[in-house]
Amino acid sequence: MFFKGLVPKAAAFGLAVAVLSAMPGCKRAQDAEFVVGPKVKELDATLQEAVTAAVRGEFGTPSLPTTPLHADLELKEKETELRRLRHGRDLYVQQCEQCHGTSGDGNGPAAKYMYPRPRDYRAGIFKFTTTPYGAKPRRSDLLRTVDRGVSGTCMPSFRLLPKFDREAIVDYVLLLTHRGEVETRIALEAEFEEEVDSEVVPDLMDEVFTRWETAEEQEVHPLTVQPVEFSDEMVAAGKEAFLTKGCAKCHGEDGRGMTKDNLGKDAWGFATKAADLTSGHLHGGAEPIDIYRRIISGINGTPMPGFRTILQQEPESIWNLVAYVKHVAGQRRAGNVPVPGAFRKDTPESGTLDVAAVGDTAAAN
Ligand code: HEC
Ligand code: HEC
Question: Does ligand 1 have an atom closer than 6 angstroms to the CB of 153?
Answer without folding.
Answer: yes
